[in-house]
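for the recovery benchmark. tokens below, seq after
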């Protein structure tokens, strides 16, 4: 039997995610051959050229053609996701699109139409589902009976991405911590609850840290590059929500780029009729992490630890790549990513609507302070 030919990939967007997450993992993976990389920014192309002198570097996705590529891995700023993916899909190139896949339900419609028009598959970045600790949580959750409630939280001690850049400008990012971290959290729900519609969504947002550079994510561009004075911006650094599915399962959501916590914490509690499973870990690449992932199962007053393998930071991205060739080849993948994305983007839209309907509370300043 001959080994399947490698998937010929173009990496589109050569910023932090393209350069640090995808290029190295794709290049070392035996099932992929990176055939080109695309970025309109000459500096981004020059940085990649220095590290990968053999790679063809292009300035625009128009230079890619379906004959030479089996997949485009797209990691461009959020506001360009829909239009870049739409162009590639309609040109007949399958797309793996980073989160947030889209910034509105209208963009989801456009992507679904492009997938049909190009007759190719759209796949979505869903890294958290590929973590070993989250996979184990899914297994344990099957023993919990009917799931009544899920708590989802990702609370960074500090980690506002690229303060002053596009991440903190709503027009380009689509939102702050909710769109960035909340997307990952909501994405973990599908394997737990199925692709659910939310019947009710309420929420609040706040921005107490986003204008202060001291809370920036130093790991993204190096300590020196973090904007020392704070770039400001017009997005939230924290979002809190309460969501109820059509069949009455509730979900509480907390996404924070910065907080007064000492360490970054991601916590998922799944409460079922027959017990509660609780995972405490740290998603993503931030260095200020929990020492290790801890999963426990509580039933009738007894809490037992569920053993978890230790895995290096970022293993979930490689694991998702392992699955991509089969997903690309499977006709059942067509339309699935968009179907799963719709409840996520609808929940985000409605949480923002709810947050906008409240009058902001001014910070109270005590006399003499
Ligand atoms: N899955 C994850 O854990 C994860 C982690 C980080 C970032 N991301 C996502 O990846 C995306 C990129 O984030 P980032 O941190 O790398 O941002 P970044 O600003 O560092 O990089 C974005 C790059 O895209 C390029 N670009 C802009 N327009 C383009 C176009 N038309 N064609 C090709 N390239 C274009 C920019 O020049 C830049 O080099 C975002 O959507 C972000 O949410 C996902």
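predicted aa per position
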């Amino acid at each position: 039997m001959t080994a399947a030919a490698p998937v010929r990939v173009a990496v589109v967007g050569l910023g932090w995610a393209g350069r640090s997450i995808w290029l190295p993992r794709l290049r070392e993976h035996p099932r992929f051959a990176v055939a080109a990389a695309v970025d309109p920014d000459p500096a981004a192309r020059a940085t990649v050229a220095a590290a990968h002198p053999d790679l063809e570097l292009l300035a625009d996705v128009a230079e890619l053609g379906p004959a030479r590529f089996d997949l485009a891995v797209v990691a461009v700023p959020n506001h360009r996701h829909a239009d870049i993916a739409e162009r590639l899909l309609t040109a007949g190139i399958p797309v793996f699109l980073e989160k947030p896949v889209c910034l509105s339900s209208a963009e989801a419609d456009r992507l679904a139409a492009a997938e049909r028009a190009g007759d190719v598959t759209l796949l979505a970045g869903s890294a958290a589902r590929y973590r070993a600790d989250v996979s184990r949580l899914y297994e344990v959750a099957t023993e919990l009976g009917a799931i009544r409630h899920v708590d989802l939280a990702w609370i960074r001690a500090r980690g506002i991405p690229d303060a002053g850049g596009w991440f903190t400008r709503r027009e380009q990012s689509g939102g702050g911590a909710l769109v960035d971290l909340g997307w990952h959290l909501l994405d973990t729900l599908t394997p737990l609850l199925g692709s659910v519609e939310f019947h009710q969504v309420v929420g609040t947002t706040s921005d107490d840290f986003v204008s202060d550079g001291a809370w920036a994510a130093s790991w993204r561009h190096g300590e020196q590059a973090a904007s020392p004075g704070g770039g400001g911006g017009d997005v939230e650094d924290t979002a809190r929500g309460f969501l109820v599915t059509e069949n009455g399962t509730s979900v509480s959501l907390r996404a924070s780029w910065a907080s007064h916590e000492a360490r970054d914490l991601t916590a998922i509690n799944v409460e079922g009729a027959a017990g509660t499973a609780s995972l405490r870990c740290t998603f993503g690449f931030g260095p200020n992490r929990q020492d290790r992932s801890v999963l426990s199962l509580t039933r009738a007053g007894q809490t037992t630890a569920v053993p978890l393998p230790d895995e290096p930071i970022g293993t979930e991205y490689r694991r998702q790549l392992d699955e991509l060739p089969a997903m690309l080849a499977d006709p059942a993948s067509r339309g699935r990513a968009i179907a799963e994305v719709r409840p996520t983007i609808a929940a985000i839209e409605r949480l923002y609507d709810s947050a906008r309907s409240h009058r902001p509370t001014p910070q109270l300043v005590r006399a003499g302070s």
